[in-house]
Amino acid sequence: MLSRKAKHIKTTHGLTIVEVLIASSLLVVIGSLMISFIMQGSSLWEIITGQSDLRSSLRNAMNSMEQELRKTTRTSTETPSPNLIIPSKPNNTSVDFYLPGDSDNNGLIIDAMGATEWDKSNKIQYQYVPGLKLLRRLEKGNFRTIARNVALIEFEDTSINSALYNAELKIILTLEKNTRQQRTISASITSVIKMRNQ
Q1: Nearest-CA neighbor of 155 among 101, 104, 90, 106?
Q2: What is the pLDDT of residues 167-189, one digit of tens each?
Q3: Using CB atoms within 10 A of its CB, is residue 12 exposed (0-12), middle (13-18) or buried (19+)?
């Protein structure tokens, strides 16, 4: 019985070179497919997270501007005027405005006649810097960045967009950036802001 096993072992053959080459080729093909799927998944993940980051930045920038611009006006008859100013197209990438302020030091932003008091000594400006792709806020010589990766910003009022009411301001903001694979991703947001009537 022992000799039969020994005889059986002697007659067992290994793999031929052709079998090894076929098995190796199959492993290379399967490995290449797996790497391709992983790279595509990684690229898709980068695009999705990049768009999510851009949308988050858009919302933060728009919320910041909306909070201030709701306090501004386009309908004041005061001289000098505290009204919001937008340059005409195609230069409508900035806006100048004033915020209400307690000018008579009575603790209120409403004067004795019931009119809004404006801090006309403190002009605020939102400005787009194309070379740096920045949207920033300028007040008293100090800059604060509102958004980075800005591809487009437009401010519109009734002089630019006749569909708007006099006390409305439309903002169109687009952010854009490149992924590591040099794919451009972008996100946009549009908002119409109702400003003070006075």
Answers
A1: 90
A2: 999 999 999 999 888 889 999 99
A3: exposed
Q: What is the Rg, in whole angstroms, of the alpha carbon atoms belonging to the chain?
A: 32
Whole-number Å distance between alpha carbons of 169 and 75: 12
| d(C-alpha 111, C-alpha 117), whole Å | 6
Q: Any idea which residue has 């949308």 for tokens?
A: 55
Determine if residue 140 is left, alpha or beta; phi over 0 gives left, psi from -120 to 50 gives alpha, anything else beta: left
Total-model pTM = 0.79
Question: Using an 8 Å Cβ cutoff, are 188 and 55 in contact?
Answer: no
Element (H, E) at 145: strand 142-147
Q: Please, where are the H alpha helices in 70-128?
A: none
Chain segment 133-166, per-residue pLDDT in tens: 999 999 999 999 999 999 999 999 999 999 999 9
On whether the CB atoms of residues 26 and 19 are closer than 8 A, the answer is no
Q: 93 and 125 in contact (C-beta within 8 Å)?
A: no
